[in-house]
Write a structure and sequence with these properties.
Elements: H1 8-22, H2 35-44, H3 50-63, H4 67-71, H5 75-81, H6 88-105, H7 114-118, H8 125-135, H9 146-154, H10 163-173, H11 179-192, E1 219-220, E2 225-226
């Protein structure tokens, strides 16, 4: 009936145990075949669905296969190919700039450190974490996207609002061996059940642990507003 465990560490462990059972095959949903393709896909995925990104990159990577291709791309032509993606003009510019830096400063290889990745245009900590985890097998943090933000607050794992602060809170209570999978599990559950506007609390494996449950509580802790 929507009552979280007393300690946030215990709450996080219980949530993870149930989500591992519910989503045993949870993994990244972006399609890519190289570290650079991964970087491109993650940059494009900001405020855009993975499905839309995958549909776009299926053709994009046939035309632009390497960092050099992106670095040499015409801005207008690249933007046109990205026109179905949110903020496509900006993202075209980010990708061209990042690709130039990769070619000129990193011998055409995607960097493997947080500082070098976040120096690239269009690459913040969230994007860098994804590239490190799935491109280099380096886990330095927890990827905090909109699903992780929403579910972490709803489940009482954090009261923070900024992704950086949420990540710090989660890293304190989630065992490091679960950092990578944590994000995939929360994304899957956020898409399937704990949606932004109308979560299906009746069919949620976490309902009895969730202080935001519509069945028992009047406030959505993700937004701080009453359930409508």
């Amino acid at each position: 009936m929507g009552t979280p465990l007393a300690e946030r560490e215990e709450q996080a462990t219980a949530v993870l145990d149930r989500l591992y059972d519910a989503y045993p095959d949870s993994t990244i949903s972006l399609n890519y075949s190289s570290r650079f393709e991964l970087l491109v896909a993650v940059v494009l995925s900001a405020q855009c669905t993975d499905e839309r990104v995958n549909a776009t990159t299926a053709e994009l990577f046939e035309e632009y296969a390497t960092p050099q291709d992106f670095a040499n791309a015409d801005q207008d032509e690249l933007a046109e190919r990205l026109s179905s993606i949110t903020y496509y003009n900006n993202k075209a510019g980010y990708l061209r700039s990042a690709a130039r830096d990769i070619v000129e400063e990193h011998d055409g290889e995607v960097p493997d450190t947080m500082s070098e990745l976040t120096d690239l245009d269009g690459v913040g900590r969230k994007t860098a974490n994804v590239v490190l985890q799935h491109g280099h097998d380096v886990v330095e943090g927890i990827v905090v996207d909109t699903h992780v933000q929403r579910l972490s607050r709803r489940l009482g794992l954090t009261e923070a609002r900024r992704p950086e602060a949420i990540e710090e809170d989660l890293m304190d209570i989630v065992p490091k061996e679960n950092w990578q999978q944590f994000t995939h599990l929360f994304i899957d559950h956020g898409r399937a059940t704990c949606t932004a506007r109308n979560p299906d609390c009746d069919d949620c494996v976490l309902e009895d642990l969730c202080p935001s449950s519509k069945l028992d509580n009047g406030i959505d802790l993700a937004s701080g507003k009453e359930w409508s």
